[in-house]
Amino acid sequence: MCGIIGYTGPLDSKKILLEGLSQLEYRGYDSAGIALCMENSRIHLVRHTGKVSNLKKGCEEINQVSHCGLGHTRWATHGGVTTENTHPHRAGRVILVHNGIIENYHQLTTEFHLEGKLLSETDSEVAAWVLESLYDGDPVKAIAELVKHLKGSYSFCMMFEDHPGEIYAIRNVSPLVAAYTHSGSFVASDLTALIPYTRQYFVVPEDHILRLTSYKVHLYGLDLKELEPEILEVNWNMDAAMKNGFPHFMLKEIHEQPDALKNTILPRLAKGLPDFTDDLIPDFVFEDCDQVHIIACGTAMHAGMAARALMEPLLRIPVTVSIASEFRYEDPLVNDRTIVIIISQSGETIDTLAALRLAKSYGSKTLSVVNVKGSTIARESDYVLYTHAGPEIAVASTKAYSVQLAALYMVCCRMALVRGKYSVEEAEDFMKKLLDSIPAMEAMIEKKDTVKALVTHLINKPDAFFIGRGLDYAFSLEGALKLKEISYIHAEAYAAGELKHGTIALITQEVPVIAIATQENVFSKTISNIREVKARGAFVILLTKESLNVDPGIADIQINIPDIGDRFTVFPIAVVLQLIAYYASVGKNLDVDQPRNLAKSVTVE
């Protein structure tokens, strides 16, 4: 969950590192630091708590030009937010930055007699001192020996004072990408830091050692034999990682959702039907299964919940959704007749990756829905369905959620078609209605000022509740998560019919209740539940369709979405729920894009 960047080459490394850390700050913003290899071959460290802006101020007095260095922005795991715990760490001749968690750090401290050497509380410094203990002048050999002693996840980038101008790296689970250009060699935890300099890159393979010089990138296996990396090309431009006039990345990414859906859906349409030929996903994957098991975390898991509510009634087979961190420690009921769908925006989410590996060990077919080409989950899955959201910088996921849903809806339609649950005409109608959801999203984006006005009823309240039935309940789970993660308002989602079984006790005078009622088959039931909370003093914000008749006085505020098929209302509803959370955060003068305690890519357990 930390941002890493390294550079060696003819340019000013300080400038490149600080700009790169600004791009990577969404991965962690508790503290930041850089290590610069100076002309005398000494390595100079600058570290500051807080955001990268604090580090930039601390670097203003550095006048000497450096051509090689490492940068790191931290999301604290081991040890609090202090200068001593800030990366990079120095251990004798070794300078190290780290993303991940070393599980056996305490054992290593004892084994290598490090008690008197450690200046921080971090597992990362322990790894640095172990590396120093093993180092005999050959960095590649020492790194290969280091990983034999480690348990956990890591991406390390390292410099050695007696090897000026060189950077070394290795990874296990935690992501790293690298590139060589005429401007020098780069390594980073995320592509966004590399895009200003190149569109060609490679994903550093797990358990491979990287050596960067100003004129070459070398890749070695743990047997020390040199290998050729697989070069990939970025399919989005730098503008996608910039705000482009929007006050926050989150608002920009909300606006980008209609185009992201088009980019995900349209290339996979053939004669009006979903077609995964170019994705190399054969129909027998969807035919030869008795159950579907969806695995994800957070927002991606909520996309899975909506997919389950869609798939199970249509396909008439069991569809289970598991939180990845729970699935991996269970004895899950999956087998070689199960298709396991893995959902991850980054393709590097550690719990989801571990769950994927467990599912494969049971013989299940695995299909990943990911946004990042070449990511670990994508490479290890049997089949991959790439979404095309482009980079998502705000910590709170918006467009990644929408394109995950779009991909899952297309999978559901294809499964229904090949399993005989849909005729060709029914599948064509499904896809037409899916495309209709795009202008419906655009219509709700146009209503953002209406949504902005209603959040005055939320921002001074300690609690908020979301209710719905069926698909509407699945939507409400994501709405509650969005509100709590960026506005810090305690928010919970409940199946509306469950209110009277205990949770209605939480309804007090003027407590906000966001009620979603778009499903016609349970509409009257949801309205009855709204009456129940209204009778107990709740302030009700109703989200429904234009065509559904609602008696005056049912809700204090009503927002209507366009009339589209019930199964597809998630797309315009998602926009409304995202805007509610966004404007609540803005109204409370909070940091929308970088909420406290959170980071974008969760690569630690």
TrEMBL record:
GO molecular function (one): transaminase activity
Leading EC class: transferase
InterPro entries: GATase_2_dom, GFAT, GFAT_N, GlmS/AgaS_SIS, GlmS/FrlB_SIS, Ntn_hydrolases_N, SIS_dom, SIS_dom_sf
Tagged with keyword rRNA-binding: no
Entries under SUPFAM superfamilies matching the protein: N-terminal nucleophile aminohydrolases (Ntn hydrolases), SIS domain
Domain SIS positions: 281-421, 454-595
Keywords noted in UniProt: Aminotransferase, Glutamine amidotransferase, Repeat, Transferase
EC number(s) given by UniProt: 2.6.1.16
Classification via PANTHER family: GLUCOSAMINE--FRUCTOSE-6-PHOSPHATE AMINOTRANSFERASE, ISOMERIZING, GLUTAMINE--FRUCTOSE-6-PHOSPHATE TRANSAMINASE (ISOMERIZING)
Name of the featured protein: Glutamine--fructose-6-phosphate aminotransferase [isomerizing]
Protein encoded by which gene: glmS
